[in-house]
Description:
Elements: E1 11-19, E2 25-29, E3 32-37, E4 44-52, E5 56-66, H1 79-82, H2 92-109, H3 115-121, E6 137-144, E7 150-155, E8 162-164, H4 174-189, E9 203-210, E10 217-223, H5 231-239, E11 244-251, E12 263-268, E13 273-280, E14 287-296, H6 306-320, E15 327-331, H7 337-343, E16 348-353, H8 356-368, E17 374-378, H9 381-390, E18 403-406, H10 415-424, E19 428-433, H11 436-448, E20 451-459, E21 469-476
Parallel strand pairs: 3-5, 10-11, 15-16, 15-18, 16-17, 18-19
Antiparallel strand pairs: 1-2, 1-4, 2-3, 4-5, 6-7, 6-9, 7-8, 9-10, 11-12, 13-14, 19-21, 20-21
Helix pairs in contact: 2-11, 6-7, 9-10
Bound molecules: S-adenosyl-L-homocysteine.
Amino acid sequence: MSDRIYNKNQIVRTEITDINEEGNGIGKTDGYTLFVKDAVVGDIADVRITKPKKNYAFARLEKLIEPSSYRREAPCPIARACGGCQLQSLTYVKQLEYKANKVRMNLKRLGGFSEEELNRVFLPIVGADNEFRYRNKAQFPIGKDKDENPVAGFYAGRTHSIIPCDDCLLGAEENRIVLNTILGFMKKKDIPSYDEESGCGLVRHVLIRKSRENGDLMVCLIINGDNIPFESELVHELSKIKKVTTVSVNSNTERTNVILGDKMRIIYGSGRIIDSIRIYEDDLKSFSDRKVSFGISAKSFYQVNPLQTEKLYSLALSFAGLTGKETVWDLYCGIGTISLFLATKARKVYGVEIVPEAIEDAKENAKRNGIENATFYVGKAEEVLPSFYESVCADEDGKHPDVIVVDPPRKGCDEACLATMIKMAPERIVYVSCDSATLARDLRILCDGGYNLSKVCPVDQFCQTVHVESVCLLVNQNVKSKTVCKRWN
Length: 489
Ligand code: SAH
């Protein structure tokens, strides 16, 4: 094989035939692969080589020769510079096809599942009705423009410079009013923005959360210090904005890119907003009369796309196939969102989560909903589950699971956790995943350990981005298959 065949800055004409994991277009010329930023599958384009390697190169779109029929004008004017929405230039239908395909390909390549098997278990991806304005949480960094005025926006790529933007099309329209109030106040009172490079200045970020249920808004200012000058005046201005019900200040004096610091001070309202997640009927078309309510603080982990979360959790609940008699374990339970959903239909639910504050939230949320059949443990799933399994009286107190639900972070489940799940042999395992590569790895382990993959359903929680969520059902090979989800049978 020859050494690199292209040079930096060289312009090459290529047809984009696929999209990679990061959302870049893939083009091929004589077996040499190009990963092209801002190109869309179906484009014929001139691309500029930015980083040549031996057998492949990174490139960016220079000139569109023939635009793809899947291409659309990105609705957000700064989509390209911001980079948060890798797929905005792709039609939504094509985005869904790309995501479903990504899950399918990972299960095939990394999980070793055959085409035949996948045809049998793979369900159509659940798309969103609102592909924009879906996020209930926004975190805007605060900086200054060239005239030293405070601005809100997004970090450009991996840099410290802020692209001014007071409206992200994925977030709530109200964010703009909140931001402009804060920026106007900072300007009027000469309150400085934080400067990442020098570590000086005060206001670092503004975090805004919105309740889907009642539209209430929570505002949290993250500052490099403990106090904001003229705080009560600021509270007064923010509280005049319709629906702002609580304001807090978070102190973060560390030189870090972690947004929130440890210290929280509530300066208006309760520090929480209330939201609820409605439970769909099995057909995912209409809501049942049940919902679960949650108290959310600035620090709580809470799914960012509330309308799609209702579909995701309803599918998980439906796959769990509960009749009211079951004991269910919900591993990686966070603030108990899925656990409390399950508790509406199970005999008993046990939730396990590593973050103690999340478990405090989970317990409070159980109370809020009058749910008494859910118990929560703080700990690592891979330690709590095995130690429970090894305890002598395990079976006597009815803790043995009929169903285990897992919703791990991107790295997937720990091997010890999977091994114990296999030993415990629940009838069904429901796997909720935000990373189809680790999902594929874990499904293979579970299938080799005695489970049949029965359903895989991708759900689009993060429209415009390359991320995709999936819900899977595994059934123990010793259990005759049951009808568990009317939508698909
Ligand atoms: N099911 C929840 C949270 C999912 S996110 C929801 O949908 O809201 C994954 C969760 O796993 C996070 O809350 C994280 O804190 C937790 N976690 C990460 N590693 C863990 C481990 N080893 N054991 C238990 N929980 C863990």
